[in-house]
Design goal:
The protein has helices spanning 17-20, 32-42, 61-79, 136-144, 163-171, 197-217, 231-244, 250-255, 287-293, 326-340, 351-358, 373-383, 411-414; strands at residues 4-5, 7-12, 83-96, 102-111, 115-116, 125-127, 148-149, 154-157, 176-182, 189-195, 225-229, 260-267, 275-283, 302-309, 313-319, 344-349, 364-367, 391-393, 406-407. It is an alpha+beta fold. It folds into two domains: 4-271 and 395-414, no CATH class; 275-393, Conserved hypothetical protein from pyrococcus furiosus pfu- 392566-001, domain 2 (2-Layer Sandwich), CATH 3.30.1760. The strands form three sheets. Strands 1, 2, 3, 4, 5, 6, 8, 9, 10, 11 and 12 form an eleven-stranded mixed sheet that branches. β14 (302-309) and β15 (313-319) form a beta hairpin.
């Protein structure tokens, strides 16, 4: 059985799919006005906004009111047949980003039995970043009360020859176009094609070929897929499944809908995948002491990391033998330093923003290089997961929009 497989996928019948699809709930978390604007736009129209909780609204009265309606909204959408089900299918997607590049994806179901967010796992599906355990319970609570899921999870495969998606292109004209529209709020354009029947079977065979080849490289601890986005949402799904499965008989454990999570599979090596570095700034520190404490590495080669403060700038050199990822070496050092000294760390997108913040008194910014795609899976194998805030897969408006859905319960039993 494949780790990533077809699913019974729900899509809206509504013609206005722009209002249906909203961006991942963890985006614009410091800009509640963005989500207030989305709410004013969609109002009472069918929309995934009514089925998810934006993190910008957390710890507010709006969150309590909104969250209390989510389950009822899901039930109403099912009762009123707002969505249509496409059984045992994949959805092939092409997302045109604002820079003109086209990001390919395949929506299907990920087997949670093959995934673990613990850094020490030897399961074939692993997190890309260290999981903050405190973030799981609130997300798990929302999922445990839901009867539907609408994912922003991106699953990455490590295929530098891009076999799967180049092959899908050869049968694209055999697939039925299901949607073709502009995403709201500068989200670009999205198209989706149905892969069912023989086309679905062919794609499954290609996926199985990829998974088998990756597992054969290291049968005891294979790394087949990595979570590119939605790490904590998937960790919550795993936590809910682990609770549910304790009361199920062996047969039901194989088929229960909560065992799976809908996700979009993408190829790490596709040219449209742009990994942007997330820089570091330390505030309220003794800059001279911090820079001096790095010293000089004994071994070669080294990583050169540029730094800047209010009145100085330069480079530090880190021991490259510690990790294939420069950030992993730097983050380990900064964490250890802050354990013993005063100061705070923050994570900054964009070199210009970092340079401006580094000019503040008692602050120093570290400019990180872009992460190499080739090092991603290797680092996960060596270190278990990447340091927090290692990279961003595009800007906020380029994140996945909620569009496809799936039932988390047996809908016939619910009836």
């Amino acid at each position: 059985m494949s780790i990533f497989a077809s699913a019974d996928i729900l899509l809206p019948k509504a013609e206005n799919k722009e209002n249906w699809a909203v961006v991942a709930c963890d985006q614009y978390s410091s800009a509640p006005e963005y989500w207030d604007g989305v709410y004013e736009r969609v109002k009472d129209e069918p929309s995934t906004l009514h089925l998810i909780l934006p993190e910008a609204w957390l710890n507010s009265q709006k969150a309590q009111t909104h969250q209390a309606k989510i389950r009822a909204n899901m039930e109403a959408y099912l009762k009123n047949e707002v969505m249509r089900m496409y059984p045992d299918s994949f959805i092939y997607t092409e997302r045109t980003l604002t820079n003109g590049s086209i990001r390919q994806g395949l929506v299907g179901a990920l087997d949670l039995e093959a995934y673990d967010y613990q850094a020490s796992t030897n399961l074939p599906v692993r997190a890309t970043e260290a999981t903050i355990l405190e973030r799981i319970p609130p997300r798990a609570k929302i999922r445990s009360q839901a009867i539907l899921e609408f994912p922003h999870i991106l699953l990455l495969q490590n295929d530098n020859q891009d076999r799967l998606f180049s092959r899908i292109q050869t049968i694209k004209d055999q697939l039925e176009l299901l949607y073709d529209f502009d995403l709201m709020e500068n989200g670009g354009h999205i198209c989706g094609w149905l892969a069912s029947g023989p086309a679905k079977a062919q794609i499954e065979a290609w996926i199985e070929e990829y998974e088998t080849a990756k597992q054969a490289l290291n049968p005891a601890s294979p790394l087949v897929y990595a979570i590119g986005d939605g790490n904590h949402s998937l960790a919550a799904a795993k936590a809910v499944w682990e609770t549910i499965r304790t009361d199920l008989d062996p047969q039901k454990k194989q088929t229960h809908p909560a065992r799976y999570a809908l996700a979009e599979l993408e190829n790490l090596h596709h040219e449209a995948q742009q990994f942007e570095p997330i820089h570091r700034i330390l505030k309220n520190v003794d800059v001279e002491d911090l820079i001096a404490s790095f010293g000089s590495p004994v071994s070669q080669p080294t990583y050169e990391i540029r730094w800047m403060s209010a009145d100085k700038q330069g480079s530090i050199f880190l021991d490259a033998s510690i990790s294939p990822l420069p950030l992993a070496v730097l983050q380990h050092f900064l964490d250890a330093y802050l354990d013993e000294h005063e100061g705070e760390i923050d994570y900054i997108h964009g070199e210009e923003d970092l340079a401006a913040l580094a000019k503040q008194p008692n602050s120093v910014g570290f400019f990180l290089p872009a992460i190499s795609k080739d090092s991603l899976f290797e680092t996960i194998k060596n270190d278990g997961s990447l340091p927090r805030k290692t990279f961003s897969m595009g800007h906020a408006h380029e994140k996945r929009y909620y569009l496809e859905g799936r039932a988390l319960v047996d809908l016939q039993e619910e009836d």
